[in-house]
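Re: the pair you flagged

First of the two:
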Amino acid sequence: MTDSFDKNEPLEEKADVVEDTLEETTDSSDKVKWYVVHTYTGYENRVCDKIRSMIDNEQNPDIIDVTVPTEEYVEVKNDQKKVKTRKLFPGYVMVKMNVTNKSWYIIRNTQGVTGFVGPDRKPVPLTPDEVRKFGVKEKKPILDIDVAVGDDVNIIAGPFKDFVGKVTEVDKEKQSIKAFVDIFGRDTSIDLEFTDIETI
């Protein structure tokens, strides 16, 4: 399998190709969006892992997230049901990024990638509706809230918004707490995410 770039071509010439390809469609000030990347069949997870490694190593700040959309289904075999997972779109990987010449070049030249999905393979961002339709799950931001058991917190979202809760349990890994809330004169234990609260 070969890439459309000649591996023996000088890097300077490759950079010119990238710049010419993107000059009509991207700008370094564009907001971060989701894009669809085409891969060789069977390479989806490998491509995802390579890009994930680049993100973890902070190789390029314009590459934010990557995922292979999947769904669960029930397989019945020999009268036994098994829940399995399959790819929603074999041969495709979703990448969240700000498309610049450099980030485009890095993704395009990742082993197993054949190109971006779009006219003439120029990156075209997914709309919010398409992101939801394609089953892309956004990573929740990791919050570092200074909260401990016994603290009072204001609830700022959800059905208990504007209530005050007393923290009884903190789970920083799951980014959540348990708290007692006074409902009709009775302390009721509820689960809240860090994004639902603010410290007092």
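Second of the two:
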Amino acid sequence: MTGDHTSTAGTGAGTGAGTETGAEAGADTGTGRDAIVRAARRAFTLRPYAEVTLRGIAADAGVSPSLIVKRFGSKERLFNTVADFQPAADALFAARPAVLGRHLVLTMVRLRDELRGDPLLRVVFSLGRDDERTLLRERFREQVTDRLAGSLAGADRELRAELIAGQLLGLGATLSLHRPDGAGTRTPPERLADLYAPGLQLLIDGGAARRDPREPVSVGG
């Protein structure tokens, strides 16, 4: 991967003619764009950038390499799309803090259904990789964790944002691990939110007032 990639990714290149952003890739019009993005996510998160080819992605997606070039322009721009968490973050954080926990769960389930895959989980496969895949972690932290921290109140908001991000990744991993016939797949989204959202909301709100563990607890009247 050339040094140009860093500047391309940092400036959001890939939105010009012959390319598309992550948001556009999420709306398939029957031309194979979703399949290309899903195949690219698998390829770029599981293998070093230098080993990934447009021909291989095309074969996995069931399209021609020329279609990838037409839609995304180049391998570098396609990688930039895969490394973009902004569309998912926009949807996930589109609620006021008081109801954000439930919104996060319902939106995660909806996005997984619409995208036929998890919108965030690919970052987990980039852990421990000292190559171009580090960009996925950098983007995730900037577009998801840091953005969430900026919307929270309290001195420990950065910690709580990291824990919330971890819980979202855990939810996605659990649903993926037990598909296609796991209990989570069979459970209505509203029920999933009933069970999972309170823990998220506790982190969003900052939890109950802290008590000094050395302070004696009053028992009885």
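The chain has two domains: 30-82, 85-205.

-B.
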